[in-house]
């Protein structure tokens, strides 16, 4: 088995055996990674790669939004949905305008949320 196949098998195993809490953590981590890759691509004027990475980050945030349990009472589900919608829209704008500041804003939001999530 080649190195990359081993890495992929490990990642698949990690996801398949993860708790729901860990899956959310992995998604948050993945969104941050994709945005940082988009920032690197933008520094290199590789606009195609910027687009690809930001769309991946948008897809992750959409998945996070769709995973919110709306049957839970209280304001938290709606606040989470609004937060994800805000991040999603900022990434769409960042992609269209190739805006590093908007990308950084979403990274900060995701990292703060991830820190909070890990403390639960």
Automatic annotation (TrEMBL):
Record's keyword terms, sorted: Bacterial flagellum biogenesis, Cell projection, Chaperone, Cilium, Cytoplasm, Flagellum
Chief localisation class: cytoplasm
Subcellular compartments: Cytoplasm, Cytosol
Domain of life of the native organism: Bacteria
GO biological process entries: bacterial-type flagellum assembly; bacterial-type flagellum-dependent cell motility
Gene3D superfamilies associated with the record: Flagellar protein FliS
Pfam families the UniProt entry points to: FliS
GO cellular component assignments: cytosol
First and last residue of the signal peptide: none
InterPro entries recorded: FliS (IPR003713), FliS_sf (IPR036584)
Assigned protein family: Belongs to the FliS family.
Protein name in the entry: Flagellar export chaperone FliS
UniProt source species: Vagococcus silagei
Organism lineage string: Bacteria, Bacillati, Bacillota, Bacilli, Lactobacillales
